[in-house]
Amino acid sequence: MSDSDTAAAGDKHSELLDCCGGLNNIDYSKMDLKWMEELLKHINFHDSNFCIAVIAIIFNPLFWNVVARWEHRTRRLSKLFGSPYLACYCLGFVIILLNVYRSHSMTVAMKAQARWEVMDRTDVFYTGVALIVLGTLLVVSSFLALGFTGTFLGDYFGILMDEKVTGFPFNIVENPMYWGSTANYLGLALIGASPVGLVLTAIVAGAYKVAIRYEGRRH
């Protein structure tokens, strides 16, 4: 490495240290967190509807990942149904029902709790509509690209696609089914001016994030 390269690297390192030092010098106690306090005031975390929705959100990805890996190790479902395709279709149907119930439980929780006047605005409403349109586009296009068995964990049943799907929407975002679903829930929360909907959507995103990391170590 030449002296000029060494000097340049030293300058970049100094800039990085200065940046990190600047972050460390931020007085977080002076940050305005009133909006967070106001949001939390509108949420009843002890409400049974909220608790049921949280359980449904966490249970769904846990269920399908555990069952799919169990099937991959034992082939019990394929043997029980006499066909890996039939077993995959049945698991997919159960997953769909669970997701419908999750959506229902989240909707019930949002309707049961207070709206937030700060969110009750036309621009927020149409942002929610746009998110639902985007989310639906990602979910539907992902399903069409993967097919039923590709969407519902067919590879764990030994049902493999001819080649990796790289077209839309996978060329735009990874895991479009998950993030499209999250966008739908965020859109519903904005349309309903629902603070608890925002919290539940954050839990959905967190659950999917964990599921993605878990599925990345599949097989």
TrEMBL record:
It holds the Pfam family PEMT. It catalyses: a 1,2-diacyl-sn-glycero-3-phospho-N,N-dimethylethanolamine + S-adenosyl-L-methionine = a 1,2-diacyl-sn-glycero-3-phosphocholine + S-adenosyl-L-homocysteine + H(+); a 1,2-diacyl-sn-glycero-3-phospho-N-methylethanolamine + S-adenosyl-L-methionine = a 1,2-diacyl-sn-glycero-3-phospho-N,N-dimethylethanolamine + S-adenosyl-L-homocysteine + H(+); 1-hexadecanoyl-2-(4Z,7Z,10Z,13Z,16Z,19Z-docosahexaenoyl)-sn-glycero-3-phospho-N-methylethanolamine + S-adenosyl-L-methionine = 1-hexadecanoyl-2-(4Z,7Z,10Z,13Z,16Z,19Z-docosahexaenoyl)-sn-glycero-3-phospho-N,N-dimethylethanolamine + S-adenosyl-L-homocysteine + H(+); 1,2-di-(9Z,12Z,15Z-octadecatrienoyl)-sn-glycero-3-phospho-N-methylethanolamine + S-adenosyl-L-methionine = 1,2-di-(9Z,12Z,15Z-octadecatrienoyl)-sn-glycero-3-phospho-N,N-dimethylethanolamine + S-adenosyl-L-homocysteine + H(+). Keywords: Endoplasmic reticulum, Lipid biosynthesis, Lipid metabolism, Membrane, Methyltransferase, Mitochondrion, Phospholipid biosynthesis, Phospholipid metabolism, S-adenosyl-L-methionine, Transferase, Transmembrane, Transmembrane helix. Signal peptide: none annotated. Its EC number is 2.1.1.17, 2.1.1.71. The chain crosses the membrane at residues 43-64, 84-103, 124-148, 185-208. Residues 1-47, 69-80, 150-192 are lumenal. Gene3D superfamilies: 1.20.120.1630. GO terms for molecular function: phosphatidyl-N-methylethanolamine N-methyltransferase activity; phosphatidylethanolamine N-methyltransferase activity. The keyword Transferase applies. GO terms for cellular component: endoplasmic reticulum membrane; mitochondrial membrane. Residues 48-68 dip into the membrane without crossing it. S-adenosyl-L-methionine binds at V133, L134, G135, E215, G216. Residues 102-128, 214-219 are cytoplasmic. One of its GO terms (biological process) is methylation. The keyword S-adenosyl-L-methionine applies. It is found in: Endoplasmic reticulum membrane; Mitochondrion membrane. It is a multi-pass membrane protein. It is an enzyme of class 2 (transferase). Pathway: Lipid metabolism; Phospholipid metabolism; phosphatidylcholine biosynthesis. Catalyzes the three sequential steps of the methylation pathway for the biosynthesis of phosphatidylcholine, a critical and essential component for membrane structure. Belongs to the class VI-like SAM-binding methyltransferase superfamily. PEMT/PEM2 methyltransferase family. HAMAP family: PLMT. This is Phosphatidylethanolamine N-methyltransferase.
